[in-house]
Amino acid sequence: IQNSRRVLVYGASGSVGTNAVQLAKHFGAEVTGVCSTSNVELVRSLGADRVIDYTKEKFENDGPSYDIIFDTVGKSPFKACVERLTPTGFYLRAVHMSPLPVVRGLWVNLTSGKKVIGGTSKENAEDLIYLKELIEAGKLRSVIDRNYPLEQASEAHHYVEQGHKIGNVVLIVRQGNRLE
Ligand SMILES: NC(=O)c1ccc[n+]([C@@H]2O[C@H](COP(=O)([O-])OP(=O)(O)OC[C@H]3O[C@@H](n4cnc5c(N)ncnc54)[C@H](OP(=O)(O)O)[C@@H]3O)[C@@H](O)[C@H]2O)c1
């Protein structure tokens, strides 16, 4: 991400989304977040310049073209996203892609200057240390929705699988007197 690039984060209130909004701002982008009504203020507080409430308006109907559209939850409309990209823009999908979007993505990649990239990336120590430093410097904050003790891991999974958590859900592991 370079300065003044336009980035849209689709699913801006989830775990990946809350971090994506903050990181895109950190790297100087102009950020639009897409979330539902109850999360609009949160996404704004994370630094988004513009927030679209997906229950009230569709980002594909108006507004600017984007250099990057990052779908964190796999629910963005494929065709509309590709259309809303700048001629050399990126459509990133942080979820496992089924065969149809993979084929559509390959077609876009072969026939235009736009790029569709999907799946999860491998983490590496260097990136994690960089993120740790941002957190320690107060430049990246973790949004915590709920905490569960390890014994309630099943309930925690059930809650997460509903697909509407805000930021992160924490499992607390006790080791002797220590909390992990
Ligand atoms: N979290 C991780 O560490 C991690 C790691 C690797 C891979 N992944 C993968 O990355 C994907 C995202 O994970 P996540 O943990 O960030 O997801 P998540 O936190 O479960 O996403 C939940 C968020 O998605 C929003 N959302 C649901 N439907 C939406 C829609 N139609 N439009 C816009 N926003 C919508 C919800 O907001 P509303 O309630 O307002 O709808 C909620 O805040 C998953 O496929 C996951 O498997 C996650």
Tell me what you see in this structure.
The protein has helices at residues 15-26, 40-45, 78-83, 99-111, 125-136, 153-161, and strands at residues 6-10, 30-35, 50-53, 66-71, 85-93, 115-118, 144-149, 168-172, 174-175, 178-179. With 180 residues, it is α/β, with parallel strands linked by helices. The strands form three sheets. It has a six-stranded parallel beta sheet with strand order 3-2-1-4-5-6. A two-stranded parallel ribbon has the order 7-8. A two-stranded antiparallel sheet has the order 9-10. Strand 7, helix 6 (153-161) and strand 8 form a beta-alpha-beta unit. It is globular. It starts with 5 loop residues before the first strand and ends with a strand. Residues 10-11, 13-17, 34-36, 39, 54, 72-75, 94-95, 120, 160, 163-166 line the site of NADP nicotinamide-adenine-dinucleotide phosphate. NADP nicotinamide-adenine-dinucleotide phosphate is lined by residues 10-11, 13-17, 34-36, 39, 54, 72-75, 94-95, 120, 160, 163-166.
